[in-house]
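SEVERITY: medium
COMPONENT: batch folding queue
REPORTER: lab tech (J.R.)

DESCRIPTION
The queue accepted two submissions in a row. Attaching both inputs and their returned structure tokens so the on-call engineer can compare them side by side.

ATTACHMENT 1
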Amino acid sequence: MPNHTPPPTHPPAKPAKPPAQPAHPPTQPAHPPAPAPALAIAWTGPAEAAVSKMTPAECDDEDPHKWHEEKVRHFQKATPALASATKARIRAPAHKGGSDATEPEHITVSYKQGNKDIDSPKKGAWHVYTGR
């Protein structure tokens, strides 16, 4: 007769402990970052009078107001120094020259963050070149 020894009895295995949690869970931002505020665009009286005389043919067959405002918004989005701008005031619609008679066509614009001016590198209004 073979000698059969019963297998040793072990206490039942304890369930595995869940991994320890860090003392402070990683912080998550309460809200995702807010998108940049919309740019409010206004026109000076002289700029409004001048653009009102322009035709769509002079603005790539678009409404002159819309064409100018799209250029101003695009420039603001493409210029890091203007990322925080909340307001733009078009001071002069698209024109060549100015204080520099050889300057290419541009729109003269003042940008602000709240009530604070954001000066151009030349310390004043910005020139938004139209590329024409």
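ATTACHMENT 2
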Amino acid sequence: MPLLQDALDPYFDLVGEVVDCIHQLFEGLHFMHRHHIAHWDCMELNILMDGSMFIDAWHPSDHYVSEDYKHIARHYFGISHKYEASNTNPLEVPIFGGDKEVLEFKEDNHKPRNPFPTDVWYLGHAIQEIFLDMKCNNNFSSCIL
């Protein structure tokens, strides 16, 4: 597994970069779902990227330090869950991730639900908070409106 870093650092310079990032986020979630894995916690802090594309190598615990300082990277997959392929509609009592705004959970947080549509909501809400609520350098929301 590659060493991962915050996907929003460095910030995006072009609208096309943001569009490509969003496309890749949905591709990644689709890949997980095709393999019967529910993420349960798609939020800004959990959106990471492979930093190997940068010319200057970065340190895993601080990408402003040179690669020469060795550090063991550990990856935490937290509350993600893999379901049997035969279970086409897995129902599970909600697992609360970092985003507490899921509407279905506010209605009845003990009612078993299919986690896959919730994952899509989580990712959409993360994209809204990151890109449409103006957390990046460009004025992306006005470009869409």
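NOTES FROM REPORTER
The chain has a mean pLDDT of 77.
No errors were logged for either attachment.
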